[in-house]
Amino acid sequence: MTVLDLFAGPGGWSEGLRGLGVREVGVEIDAAACATRAAAGHTTIRADVATYPTAPFAGRVSGLIGSPPCQTFSAAGLRAGDGDAALCHQTLDDLAAGRDNRSTVRARCTDPRSLLVVEPLRYALDLRPEWVALEEVPAVEPLFAHTARLLRTVGYSTWVGVLNTADHGVPQTRRRCFLLASRTRTAAPPEPTHAKDPGPAALFGPDRAPWQTMADAIGCPAGQVVTRGDHHAGGTRFPTTGPAWALTGRARSWTLRVGNRPGATRRTLDHPAPTLLFGHALNDVSWYDDNGTPVRRLTTAEAAVLQGFPPDYPWQGSRTKQFEQIGNAVPPPMASRLLGSLVPHVLAVAA
Q: Is 287 a residue whose pLDDT tops 90?
């Protein structure tokens, strides 16, 4: 039995499972993401999730993970998915009734990628894994709620809601919608471990730790960040245990800005990062000094750490593709938190 990861990307869910001592097989179509997964030691089938048959996995899948591409529903995109939502709801009902009309409906969508959000239900109904974990942007919550209702009709306990990764130890206030389902236990989200304001100390200390800041994550306890940018030949190397960059610039008041519009999100080093958005905004995720002057762009290592990956994670592809992979990935610590209550192996070890 194995865990199957649909739209596996560079390995956010995979790293989370690895931290729990569980391995999985990913299905991913993007060449750069597949190369990253290979370099990180994650097993991958390079294929289109929408056209790949479920039959080869019959009787072999214990858990199902899915993070459908979010571009058509994301607030940072054109929101074509809003107009396609009714077609997605229709297709969910069709699949649950045993009617596969995806090819016909896809042709009617404003953006064919919108229909990818129904694929996890197709796999779940065909394979009946013990548990399911899905992730998407908050705008997809109504579709996830619909998916959950259909899973309940075939024996799953389900939970759907929006969680903030900063509440679970990730140095980024990234809000995402999750669907958790299980055939053997009550599906429920993990309890937060961190809080913006942990509150007064109790007898044994506060119940939660304060949010992790960017300074905490990238190794700047004195408010310093590296000013040399990405390291190439001759650059300083850092160990796998955490960044050990040459901290040459004192930057207590430096600000990370995401976007180039007047209302772009800005955060100082003593706060978690905002949601990291790349793609077309690649050149606009940058450090600024206290005068509002650009200092340099965020490095791939910094972006990876703020997303919860190790600083030396082996990203492959062009710089643009590497940032795209980072921004689209599920933060591994968040994946571990969510899956810890679903994966039987982990529960058995804990017992």
A: no
Q: Across the beta sheet with 255-258, what order do the strands follow?
A: 265-268, 255-258, 285-288, 294-297
Residue with the two structure tokens 């990764």: 165
pTM value is: 0.87
99, exposed or middle or buried, with CB in 10 Å at 0-12, 13-18, 19+?
A: exposed
Yes or no: say if 158 and 152 are a contact pair by the CB < 8 Å rule: yes
Residue 306 exposure: Cα atoms within 13 Å on the Cβ side? 28
What residue spans define the domains of the chain?
Answer: 2-191+330-350, 214-327
**Per-residue model confidence as pLDDT tens digits over 6-20:** 999 999 999 999 989
**Long-range contacts for 156-164 (Cβ within 8 Å, ≥24 apart)?**
156/132, 156/181, 156/182, 156/183, 156/187, 157/181, 157/182, 157/183, 157/185, 157/186, 157/187, 158/187, 159/187, 159/188, 159/189, 161/189, 162/138, 163/189, 163/334
Give the per-residue pLDDT at 240.
35
Report the amino acid identity of residue 7.
Answer: F
| Single-letter code of the amino acid located at 351 | A
- Does the structure show a pLDDT above 90 at 40? yes
Distance CA 105, CA 101 (A): 6
What's the CATH fold of domain 2-191+330-350? Answer: Rossmann fold (3.40.50)
The span from the CA of 312 to the CA of 310, in Å, is: 5
